[in-house]
Task: inverse folding
């Protein structure tokens, strides 16, 4: 207690000893900040609190869970944003040297690492580093394509999670040549309106537009795609799942279409389920076009169901 009075100007009495222990439970007393100040500035204070700092985060989460009181995200040391970095320039610096923006390490308070929060302000370096952690090694040209799709999703979401990236990579990577590219789509639908879809596709310098109606917005969009691509296909299976929770969740769509006796699979992902559906169907059509008249490769219609 003499240490608190000497260095922090805190006057204490016998009740102070009882004050510090409940401080961990009350969640509003910044005991952890005093502890970490002593630890990070040990060269100046020359004292130690005796607290095992690697238990700070676990203790905070345990108390929060037991009390049913969430810890503020912006709270120093134990808040969710304490070691989080979203800005591209900050992410780049932290990846190179965490000490640039962190006076203490996440490991010192019981975290495994800092959090690189991917959002619309994130740069290529931050995205590339996260994808590398997920097991993806991309060439510069591949990264450019993925980064553009990432920005489209990030513009609609506050934060892009690992599950979002996995769905994006699953939909965007592979051997499929993107012969037709989605340029624009517009959907008109309602409980008393005939679902209508307008779709614009690009193939090189060529751009084609078609409109169609259907039993629903997805069916209308698929009918418009069929008019442009002009392939005799039949939709056999359609699966939609939410990759992450919340109203901003990324939806992943997997479709199977039948063409000349062969089943082809397509994947698409987006925060807009209609867009994800269009991308999945177009992915399947592109696979058919890329293969030409050759038979399907082994595994094209096996082992890819959700």
Result:
């Amino acid at each position: 207690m003499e240490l608190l009075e000497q260095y922090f100007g805190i006057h204490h009495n016998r009740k102070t000893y009882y004050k510090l222990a409940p401080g961990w439970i009350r969640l509003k007393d910044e005991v952890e900040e005093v502890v970490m100040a002593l630890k990070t500035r040990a060269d100046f204070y020359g004292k130690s609190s005796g607290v095992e700092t690697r238990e700070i985060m676990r203790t905070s989460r345990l108390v929060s869970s037991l009390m049913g009181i969430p810890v503020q995200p912006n709270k120093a040391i134990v808040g969710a944003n304490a070691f989080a970095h979203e800005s591209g320039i900050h992410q780049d610096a932290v990846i190179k040297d965490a000490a640039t923006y962190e006076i203490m390490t996440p490991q010192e308070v019981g975290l495994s690492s800092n959090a690189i929060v991917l959002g619309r302000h994130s740069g290529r370096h931050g995205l590339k580093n996260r994808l590398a952690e997920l097991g993806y090694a991309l060439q510069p040209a591949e990264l450019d394509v993925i980064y553009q799709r990432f920005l489209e999703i990030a513009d609609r979401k506050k934060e892009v999670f690992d599950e979002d990236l996995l769905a994006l990579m699953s939909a965007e990577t592979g051997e499929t040549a993107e012969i037709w590219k989605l340029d624009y789509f517009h959907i008109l639908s309602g409980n008393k309106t005939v679902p209508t879809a307008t779709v614009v596709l690009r193939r090189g310098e060529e751009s084609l537009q078609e409109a169609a109606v259907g039993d629903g917005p997805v069916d209308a969009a698929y009918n418009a795609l069929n008019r442009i691509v002009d392939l005799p296909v039949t939709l056999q299976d359609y699966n939609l799942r939410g990759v992450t929770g919340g109203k901003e969740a990324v939806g992943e769509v997997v479709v199977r279409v039948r063409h000349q006796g062969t089943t082809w699979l397509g994947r698409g992902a987006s925060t807009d389920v209609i867009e994800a559906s269009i991308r999945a169907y177009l992915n399947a059509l592109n696979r058919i076009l890329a293969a030409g008249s050759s038979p399907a490769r082994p595994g094209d219609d096996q082992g890819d169901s959700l």
Observations:
- The first strand starts at residue 84 and ends at 85.
- DSSP finds eleven helices and eight strands in the chain.
